[in-house]
Write a structure and sequence with these properties.
The protein has three helices and eight strands. By secondary structure, it is α+β, with helices and mostly antiparallel strands. It starts with 7 loop residues before the first helix and ends with a strand. About 10% of the residues are buried.
């Protein structure tokens, strides 16, 4: 929340405090003169005039404080309006491109053998994207959507050693997704001990292709997915209880052709699923985290 402070209000308040102290001192002197110097009437008249001037100054300062408070209130209101406008859920031409690589010419052959090589390229574009969400202590949810979205990625990595130990591993992953439009909703409820979550996505005019292979001592993952559909829907629900999380994903397509299969076993997680479609089809995926 934006709150505008010009700084003038504090200065006016300080001046007001000083004027009040001066007025109290003048009143004390007036009382002393009245008790101890009955003949000093001329001085008393001057003090009366001075008190009048101080009272006028106090009135001016008080009016200034009210004016500054009103100014700050208007500025705060305008700033909050600008803040709300800057947080509009719409974004146009939202893009993201990332590249990473360890193919450095200065690296030695021993370095390549010891630390392996990796290269990756990730890119995405949404012509128009939308996202709106809200959260409280135990409940959260929202809606999102996009028009004219494209995502592509390639990631490859190979290693012979894991630290000082010989542990060969290889990873290859490539994907491409495009859709004329998409819309999705998501919600969750619970805490770290017991929680449930659900989300659903619908894609219109989508094309996809994905291949993934990971082989190492603590993971074996094989996945292939290819297809095109006029309408594709994915619904996912999960429940977590005392550290164990089970996720079930359902897939439905209309006006589609394609197939997919997935198997993954790694530390703390197990996943399997499949789907096939010709004009219409259904698929599923189950993931267990423990």
């Amino acid at each position: 929340m934006i709150c505008v402070q010009t700084g003038k209000l504090e200065a006016a308040a300080a001046t007001l405090k000083q004027c009040k102290q001066t007025l109290q001192h003048i009143q004390y002197l007036q009382c002393s003169l009245h008790q101890k110097l009955p003949l000093a009437k001329s001085l008393q008249s001057e003090l009366h005039e001075l008190i009048k001037q101080v009272n006028e100054s106090l009135c001016y300062v008080q009016d200034s404080i009210k004016s500054y408070m009103e100014t700050e209130r208007r500025l705060t209101k305008q700033a909050q309006k600008i803040e709300r406008m800057s947080k509009k859920p719409y974004q146009f031409m939202k893009s993201d491109v990332r590249v990473h690589s360890t193919l450095d010419r200065d690296r030695s052959l021993v370095d390549f053998i010891k630390n392996g090589v990796c290269v990756g390229v990730f890119g995405g574009l949404d012509v128009v994207s939308f996202r709106k969400e809200g959260h409280s202590k135990y409940v959260g949810g929202g809606i999102k959507g996009a028009l004219g979205s494209v995502d592509a990625s390639f990631d490859a990595k190979g290693m012979l050693f894991d630290g000082k130990h010989f542990s060969p591993s290889a990873k290859l992953e490539a994907s491409f997704k495009a859709a004329i439009g998409s819309v999705g909703m998501f919600a969750n409820i619970g805490n770290s001990w017991l929680s449930a979550a659900a989300k659903g996505d619908v894609y219109v005019g989508s094309v996809r292709g994905e291949a993934k292979a990971v082989i190492r001592k603590d993971e074996v993952t094989l996945k292939a997915d290819v297809g095109a559909s006029a309408i594709r829907g994915e619904v996912e629900g999960s429940i977590q209880l005392f550290g164990i999380k089970i996720t079930l994903t359902g897939i439905g397509e209309v006006g589609s052709v394609g197939a997919s299969a997935e198997f993954s076993s790694k530390k703390g997680e197990f996943t399997f699923g499949t789907s096939a479609s010709l004009l219409a089809g259904l698929g599923f995926k189950v993931r267990v985290n423990y």
